[in-house]
Amino acid sequence: MGSINERVKKGGLSSFTAQIRVKRDGFRHTEARTFSTRKLASRWMALRENELDRPGVLEKIRNPDPTLGEVIDLYLKTTLTPPGRTKAQCLVTVKKHPIAARQCGEITSIEIAGFITDMINGWQPVDHETEPKPTAPRKPQTVANYVSHLRSVFAVARPMWGYALDQQALRDAVTAAKYLGMIAASAKRERRPSLDELEQLLEYFAARKRDVPRMAPMVEIVLFCLFSTRRQEEATTLLREDYEAAHGRILVRGMKHPAQKIGNDVWCELPPEAIAVIESIPQNGERIFPFNHRTISANFTRACHSLQIKDLHFHDLRHEGVSRLFEMGKTIPQAASVSGHRSWSSLKRYSHLRQPGDKYAGWDWRRWLA
Questions:
Q1: What b-and-e string marks burial along 268-307, b requiring 16 or more CB atoms within 10 Å of the CB?
Q2: 242, 250 in Cβ contact below 8 A?
Q3: Can you tell me the distance from the alpha carbon of 160 to that of 74, in angstroms, rounded to the nearest whole number?
Q4: Per-residue pLDDT tens listing for the chain (370 residues)
Q5: Cβ atoms 69, 103 nearer than 8 A
Q6: Long-range CB contact pairs, 197-202, < 8 A, 24+
Q7: Is the CB of residue 74 less than 8 Å from the CB of residue 161?
Q8: How far is CA 322 from the centre of its chain?
Q9: Under a CB-based contact definition with an 8 Å cutoff, are residues 92 and 125 in contact?
Q10: Bridge-partner residues for 31, per DSSP?
Q11: Alpha-carbon distance 92 to 132, whole Å?
């Protein structure tokens, strides 16, 4: 089962390499280690052979059990559909939690439930180079996002690599967490801006533009996103070459999609109002709105705070734009051709807001365009 080979080195000194070979049920395992004396080599070989004879030791060698953190790394390295920014950040945070240091076979519903409890209580990773972050409870919807992204790792670990991550354990922990209110579906927003609020915002941005000419054209961006139903990040990536005025459409590259992160380019129809906004903007550069989407979001938030407009987000403009299409009598396919939604389930939350007519029909919004 084992052998010791002597090797004479320069200077006349010898080294002794103990080698162990094990063959069991078609599985072969070899180990070797070098010592300064034959006695030490012989002692190690005897001890190690006894260890390998113990139940389960060879099976563990044959079927390695990495840590959850190692499997997350393998998942991120292997996947051909790179995760979005939010998913990647969530998985990086999971890797810093103590559960990531556990071997896959050790992770039961109890460990997963402990992770969920820590997350809902505001657990933060320890960074010894910076000041510790204050802990604040996370919303159940936020914790649900962490678990959802972790579910992807559990789903592929066993069938793809044979690692003992138990999907049923994850499901059991999630079920219990839902009963306790620690995990919940995202709340559906129904906030829509009023005409008075839009008037205040556009007047505010027009005044700011006069004072700071280099500021992003928030009047045009707000009106465009309202009528086109585009997200702020989508609006800032639109290219002049992808705008087809004759066909009343524009190509939205890399449109947000829960599964398809790359190459999800979608042609979207442009309502006449959105076309009018584009035509009012000087054609300088490749992008129609060459600005950072975070800057636009920050400008909008500051404006709402200054005007004391409560609980209004920039994304609510998209909600308003899609709801308007239904109120004008557009069908689901017609509304989806503008918004880029692919399924009725994504659009159905807008349909119950339907009120006959277009509330913007008598609004002189064009006066805000330069």
A1: bbbbebbbbbbebbeeeeeebbebebeebeebbeebbeee
A2: yes
A3: 11
A4: 688 888 888 878 889 898 988 887 777 888 888 998 989 989 988 888 888 888 767 766 666 789 999 999 999 999 987 787 888 999 999 999 999 999 998 999 999 999 999 999 999 887 655 555 667 889 999 999 999 999 999 999 999 988 889 999 999 999 999 999 999 987 777 889 999 999 999 999 999 999 998 899 999 999 999 999 999 999 999 999 999 999 999 999 988 765 555 557 899 999 999 999 999 998 878 999 999 999 999 999 999 999 999 999 999 999 999 999 989 988 888 999 999 888 777 777 666 565 678 889 889 988 888 6
A5: no
A6: 197/307, 197/309, 197/312, 198/222, 198/226, 200/307, 200/309, 201/300, 201/303, 201/304, 201/307, 201/309, 202/365, 202/368
A7: yes
A8: 24
A9: no
A10: 20
A11: 17
Q: Is the CA virtual torsion 104, 105, 106, 107 positive or negative?
A: positive
List the structure tokens of 7: 């090797």
Distance CA 264, CA 329 (A): 28
Cα gap 321→93, rounded to integer Å: 35
Q: CA neighbours within 13 Å on the CB side: how many for 360?
A: 19
Hey, which residues does 252 pair with through a beta bridge?
266
The one-letter code for the residue type at 351 is: S
Would you state the structure tokens that stand for residue 71, as one six-digit string? 């499997």
- Tokens coding 290: 């060459």
14 φ, ψ to 5°? -110, 150
- Long-range contacts, stretch 152-157, CB < 8 angstroms, 24+ apart: 152/75, 152/87, 153/68, 153/71, 153/72, 153/75, 153/91, 156/75, 157/71, 157/75, 157/104
Picking from 99, 93, 148, the residue whose alpha carbon sits closest to that of residue 122 is 93
